[in-house]
Protein backbone atom coordinates (compact mmCIF):
# COMPACT_ATOMS: atom_id res chain seq x y z
CA UNK A 1 0.00 0.00 0.00
CA UNK A 2 2.96 2.29 0.30
CA UNK A 3 2.97 2.82 -3.49
CA UNK A 4 -0.67 3.82 -3.47
CA UNK A 5 -0.11 6.25 -0.58
CA UNK A 6 2.76 7.87 -2.49
CA UNK A 7 0.58 8.25 -5.59
CA UNK A 8 -2.24 9.67 -3.46
CA UNK A 9 0.17 12.15 -1.86
CA UNK A 10 1.42 13.28 -5.27
CA UNK A 11 -2.15 13.67 -6.51
CA UNK A 12 -3.17 15.65 -3.42
CA UNK A 13 -0.15 17.94 -3.75
CA UNK A 14 -1.00 18.97 -7.30
CA UNK A 15 -2.24 22.50 -7.67
CA UNK A 16 -5.77 22.64 -8.91
CA UNK A 17 -6.91 25.56 -11.04
CA UNK A 18 -9.74 27.20 -9.08
CA UNK A 19 -10.68 29.38 -12.06
CA UNK A 20 -11.42 26.42 -14.31
CA UNK A 21 -14.98 26.78 -15.58
CA UNK A 22 -17.55 24.06 -15.83
CA UNK A 23 -19.09 23.13 -19.16
CA UNK A 24 -22.33 24.93 -18.23
CA UNK A 25 -20.44 28.14 -17.42
CA UNK A 26 -18.57 27.96 -20.73
CA UNK A 27 -21.80 27.36 -22.63
CA UNK A 28 -23.59 30.24 -20.90
CA UNK A 29 -20.63 32.55 -21.60
CA UNK A 30 -20.66 31.59 -25.27
CA UNK A 31 -24.40 32.21 -25.48
CA UNK A 32 -23.98 35.60 -23.80
CA UNK A 33 -21.24 36.66 -26.24
CA UNK A 34 -23.32 35.52 -29.22
CA UNK A 35 -26.30 37.45 -27.90
CA UNK A 36 -24.18 40.61 -27.59
CA UNK A 37 -22.84 40.16 -31.13
CA UNK A 38 -26.37 39.78 -32.51
CA UNK A 39 -27.66 42.79 -30.58
CA UNK A 40 -24.81 45.00 -31.76
CA UNK A 41 -25.32 43.86 -35.33
CA UNK A 42 -29.02 44.79 -35.16
CA UNK A 43 -28.00 48.21 -33.84
CA UNK A 44 -25.59 48.86 -36.74
CA UNK A 45 -28.08 47.59 -39.32
CA UNK A 46 -30.76 49.79 -37.78
CA UNK A 47 -28.67 52.96 -37.91
CA UNK A 48 -27.52 52.30 -41.47
CA UNK A 49 -31.05 51.44 -42.64
CA UNK A 50 -32.48 54.59 -41.05
CA UNK A 51 -29.86 56.72 -42.81
CA UNK A 52 -30.45 54.87 -46.06
CA UNK A 53 -34.19 55.44 -45.79
CA UNK A 54 -33.68 59.18 -45.26
CA UNK A 55 -31.37 59.42 -48.29
CA UNK A 56 -33.76 57.45 -50.49
CA UNK A 57 -36.66 59.66 -49.37
CA UNK A 58 -34.61 62.78 -50.13
CA UNK A 59 -33.62 61.38 -53.52
CA UNK A 60 -37.20 60.51 -54.33
CA UNK A 61 -38.59 63.90 -53.29
CA UNK A 62 -35.86 66.25 -54.51
CA UNK A 63 -32.78 64.56 -55.89
CA UNK A 64 -34.23 63.00 -58.99
CA UNK A 65 -34.80 66.44 -60.47
CA UNK A 66 -31.23 67.65 -59.93
CA UNK A 67 -28.24 67.74 -62.20
CA UNK A 68 -25.78 64.91 -62.68
CA UNK A 69 -23.67 65.92 -59.66
CA UNK A 70 -26.63 65.78 -57.30
CA UNK A 71 -27.91 62.50 -58.72
CA UNK A 72 -24.42 60.97 -58.76
CA UNK A 73 -23.65 62.16 -55.24
CA UNK A 74 -26.89 60.83 -53.79
CA UNK A 75 -26.52 57.63 -55.81
CA UNK A 76 -23.02 57.04 -54.47
CA UNK A 77 -24.10 57.71 -50.90
CA UNK A 78 -27.13 55.42 -51.25
CA UNK A 79 -25.12 52.75 -53.08
CA UNK A 80 -22.38 52.65 -50.45
CA UNK A 81 -24.94 52.35 -47.65
CA UNK A 82 -26.83 49.61 -49.52
CA UNK A 83 -23.55 47.71 -49.94
CA UNK A 84 -22.76 48.07 -46.23
CA UNK A 85 -26.24 46.94 -45.17
CA UNK A 86 -26.00 43.93 -47.50
CA UNK A 87 -22.61 43.03 -46.03
CA UNK A 88 -24.06 43.30 -42.53
CA UNK A 89 -26.96 41.01 -43.47
CA UNK A 90 -24.48 38.56 -44.99
CA UNK A 91 -22.50 38.63 -41.73
CA UNK A 92 -25.72 38.15 -39.82
CA UNK A 93 -26.26 34.91 -41.72
CA UNK A 94 -22.72 33.85 -40.80
CA UNK A 95 -23.41 34.73 -37.18
CA UNK A 96 -26.47 32.48 -37.21
CA UNK A 97 -24.17 29.58 -38.15
CA UNK A 98 -22.37 29.86 -34.81
CA UNK A 99 -24.11 27.17 -32.78
CA UNK A 100 -23.19 26.47 -29.19
CA UNK A 101 -24.44 22.90 -29.44
CA UNK A 102 -21.54 21.96 -31.75
CA UNK A 103 -18.45 20.28 -30.40
CA UNK A 104 -15.97 22.73 -28.96
CA UNK A 105 -13.56 22.38 -31.87
CA UNK A 106 -16.30 22.80 -34.49
CA UNK A 107 -17.63 25.82 -32.63
CA UNK A 108 -14.17 27.41 -32.45
CA UNK A 109 -13.59 26.70 -36.15
CA UNK A 110 -16.88 28.39 -37.03
CA UNK A 111 -15.94 31.38 -34.83
CA UNK A 112 -12.60 31.65 -36.66
CA UNK A 113 -14.32 31.51 -40.07
CA UNK A 114 -16.80 34.18 -39.00
CA UNK A 115 -13.97 36.35 -37.68
CA UNK A 116 -12.01 35.97 -40.93
CA UNK A 117 -15.04 37.02 -42.99
CA UNK A 118 -15.56 40.06 -40.74
CA UNK A 119 -11.89 40.99 -41.08
CA UNK A 120 -12.19 40.77 -44.85
CA UNK A 121 -15.23 43.05 -44.79
CA UNK A 122 -13.42 45.57 -42.60
CA UNK A 123 -10.12 45.50 -44.47
CA UNK A 124 -11.38 45.34 -48.07
CA UNK A 125 -14.94 46.62 -48.37
CA UNK A 126 -15.14 49.22 -45.60
CA UNK A 127 -12.44 51.57 -46.95
CA UNK A 128 -14.06 51.41 -50.39
CA UNK A 129 -17.44 52.22 -48.83
CA UNK A 130 -15.94 55.17 -46.94
CA UNK A 131 -14.37 56.50 -50.12
CA UNK A 132 -17.51 56.13 -52.25
CA UNK A 133 -19.66 57.76 -49.56
CA UNK A 134 -17.15 60.61 -49.19
CA UNK A 135 -17.07 61.27 -52.93
CA UNK A 136 -20.87 61.19 -52.91
CA UNK A 137 -21.02 63.83 -50.16
CA UNK A 138 -18.59 66.07 -52.03
CA UNK A 139 -20.59 65.81 -55.28
CA UNK A 140 -23.82 66.42 -53.38
CA UNK A 141 -22.42 69.51 -51.68
CA UNK A 142 -21.04 70.87 -54.97
CA UNK A 143 -24.46 70.37 -56.57
CA UNK A 144 -26.44 72.19 -53.86
CA UNK A 145 -23.98 75.05 -53.29
CA UNK A 146 -25.41 77.45 -55.93
CA UNK A 147 -28.90 77.17 -54.41
CA UNK A 148 -27.97 77.93 -50.81
CA UNK A 149 -26.84 80.98 -48.89
CA UNK A 150 -23.20 80.88 -47.78
CA UNK A 151 -24.18 80.39 -44.12
CA UNK A 152 -26.59 77.54 -44.85
CA UNK A 153 -24.07 75.97 -47.21
CA UNK A 154 -21.42 76.09 -44.45
CA UNK A 155 -23.96 74.42 -42.16
CA UNK A 156 -24.53 71.69 -44.79
CA UNK A 157 -20.78 71.17 -45.19
CA UNK A 158 -20.27 70.86 -41.44
CA UNK A 159 -23.22 68.51 -40.91
CA UNK A 160 -22.48 66.49 -44.04
CA UNK A 161 -18.85 65.95 -43.16
CA UNK A 162 -19.83 65.48 -39.52
CA UNK A 163 -22.21 62.73 -40.52
CA UNK A 164 -19.54 61.12 -42.69
CA UNK A 165 -17.09 61.08 -39.78
CA UNK A 166 -19.90 59.85 -37.51
CA UNK A 167 -20.62 57.09 -40.01
CA UNK A 168 -16.95 56.07 -39.94
CA UNK A 169 -16.89 56.24 -36.14
CA UNK A 170 -20.00 54.05 -35.71
CA UNK A 171 -18.68 51.37 -38.06
CA UNK A 172 -15.20 51.37 -36.51
CA UNK A 173 -16.56 51.30 -32.97
CA UNK A 174 -18.93 48.46 -33.76
CA UNK A 175 -16.13 46.53 -35.45
CA UNK A 176 -13.79 46.96 -32.47
CA UNK A 177 -16.50 45.88 -30.07
CA UNK A 178 -17.34 42.92 -32.28
CA UNK A 179 -13.67 41.96 -32.60
CA UNK A 180 -13.26 41.99 -28.81
CA UNK A 181 -16.36 39.84 -28.36
CA UNK A 182 -15.17 37.34 -30.98
CA UNK A 183 -11.76 37.15 -29.32
CA UNK A 184 -13.42 36.49 -25.96
CA UNK A 185 -15.62 33.90 -27.61
CA UNK A 186 -12.62 32.12 -29.10
CA UNK A 187 -10.86 32.17 -25.71
CA UNK A 188 -13.74 30.26 -24.16
CA UNK A 189 -12.54 27.11 -25.88
CA UNK A 190 -9.06 27.55 -24.45
CA UNK A 191 -10.36 27.53 -20.88
UniProtKB/TrEMBL annotation:
Lineage, top-rank taxon, reads Bacteria
Give the stretches traversing the membrane.
Answer: 42-62, 68-87, 124-144, 150-171
Protein name (Swiss-Prot/TrEMBL):
DUF3278 domain-containing protein
Q: Which UniProt keywords apply?
A: Membrane, Transmembrane, Transmembrane helix
Amino acid sequence: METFDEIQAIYDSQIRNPTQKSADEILSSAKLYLKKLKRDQYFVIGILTLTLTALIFFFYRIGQFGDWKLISGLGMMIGSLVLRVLLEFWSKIGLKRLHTFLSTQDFLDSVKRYYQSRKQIQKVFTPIIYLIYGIGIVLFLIAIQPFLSPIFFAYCVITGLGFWFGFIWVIRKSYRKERDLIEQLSKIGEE
